């Protein structure tokens, strides 16, 4: 390779360690034989060294956060953001474990009861005692869930 | 710099201001530092920092962990910084001009200029166009890989390469001129 080709590589991939090993070997070999390209490599590295000074951390002044906070608190949420916020609150909010348990149980029981009923169609007839009891569990689960929401000062309606 | 915990991002998505403040505290230095070096103006960098975090707050839902939060913020920072430069071009005030010691921003500026080398870096970067400057800041100062730079600036890898080559070549010439002038 000619010096011009080598220098083009030195200016970017070589100094940035982005060169694969099989392409690096010929460059290394050229460098060991060419003092002029070695000098050029030193000049490239000197430029980076000048820029890479990570002195005292520079932070924005405190009023920048204050402005941001005021603006985000004043901005009305879009419907999409409200739904996301509600969902994040439901899934990751700080509710006691039993609330999640009740909610999950209610969903499972609902599926167990509702699927056979739907499958049997509109002439399903009178529910058995077992089915009535299952639906009561569903209602209880939903009630516990709603009460927990109210207890936290929120409700699904308010959140939406 | 490590990315912030996913749980903090999830809480911020739920419009928890305290969680968003944690994100701000974690990344504000990085955003401000890059903005200062690209725009070469403390005032613009403050404005950019504000825009970046307001935009991040509004669009956090669309980020959804597709890349690292850091890379995503670099991208917004670069867009805002380059926009700030474009907006300023018509009535440009160079870094050293227009400095009023009575300006209340003087203290902040003084803090920044305590790092005398920062000023030197700023002057050096002033020899590059904004695209080359953005690439070189992300590579030489922030240590991003070519792929991360490409994502942050929405350009392809070969463009990253060619901008870095031109930027370094320009600065080598500047240094040679300086040495020749001594």
Brief descriptors of the model:
heterodimer; A: 160 residues; mainly alpha; 2 domains; 8 helices; 75% helix; 0% strand; elongated; disordered C terminus; B: 182 residues; Rna Polymerase Sigma Factor, Chain: A; 9 helices
Fold and architecture overview:
The complex is a heterodimer of chains A (160) and B (182). Chain A has two domains: 3-51, no CATH class; 94-159. Chain A is built from eight helices and no strands. Chain A is elongated. Chain A is mostly helical. Residues 131-160 of chain A have low confidence and may be disordered. Chain B is mainly alpha-helical. Chain B has one domain: RNA polymerase sigma factor, region 2, helix turn helix motif (Rna Polymerase Sigma Factor, Chain: A, Orthogonal Bundle). Helices cover 75% and strands 0% of the residues of chain B. Chain B is built from nine helices and no strands. Chain B starts with 5 loop residues before the first helix and ends with a helix. Mean pLDDT of chain B is 82; it is low at 93-104. Classes of the chains: A mainly alpha (160), B mainly alpha (182). At the A-B interface, α1, α3, α4 and α5 of A face α1, α2, α3, α5 and α6 of B.
């Amino acid at each position: 390779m000619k010096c011009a080709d080598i220098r083009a590589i030195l200016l970017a991939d070589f100094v940035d360690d982005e060169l694969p090993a099989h392409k690096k070997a010929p460059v290394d070999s050229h460098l060991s034989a060419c003092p002029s390209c070695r000098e050029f490599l030193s000049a490239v590295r000197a430029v980076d060294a000048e820029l890479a000074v990570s002195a005292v951390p520079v932070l924005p002044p405190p009023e920048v956060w204050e402005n941001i906070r005021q603006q985000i608190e004043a901005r009305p949420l879009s419907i999409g953001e409200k739904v996301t916020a509600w969902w994040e609150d439901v899934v990751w909010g700080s509710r006691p474990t039993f609330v999640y348990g009740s909610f999950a149980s209610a969903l499972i029981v609902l599926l167990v009861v509702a699927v056979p009923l739907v499958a049997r169609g509109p002439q399903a007839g009178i529910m058995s005692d077992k089915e009535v009891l299952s639906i009561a569990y569903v209602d209880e689960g939903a009630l516990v869930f709603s009460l927990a929401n109210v207890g936290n000062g929120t409700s699904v309606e308010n959140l939406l | 710099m490590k990315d912030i915990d996913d749980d903090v991002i999830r809480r911020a998505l739920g419009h928890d201001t305290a969680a968003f403040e944690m994100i701000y505290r974690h990344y504000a230095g990085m955003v401000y530092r890059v903005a200062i070096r690209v725009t070469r103006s403390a005032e613009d960098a403050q404005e950019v920092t504000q825009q970046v975090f307001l935009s991040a707050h509004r669009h956090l839902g669309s980020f959804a962990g597709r890349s690292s939060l850091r890379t995503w913020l670099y991208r917004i920072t670069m867009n805002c910084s380059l926009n700030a430069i474009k907006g300023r071009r018509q009535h440009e005030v160079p870094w050293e001009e227009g400095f009023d010691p009575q300006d209340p921003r003087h203290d902040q500026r003084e803090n920044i200029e305590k790092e005398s080398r920062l000023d030197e870096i700023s002057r050096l970067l002033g020899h590059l166009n904004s695209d080359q400057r953005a690439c070189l800041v992300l590579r030489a100062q922030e240590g991003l890989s070519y792929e991360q730079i490409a994502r942050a600036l929405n350009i392809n890898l070969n463009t990253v390469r060619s901008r870095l080559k031109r930027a370094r070549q320009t600065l080598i010439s500047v240094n040679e001129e300086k040495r020749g002038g001594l």
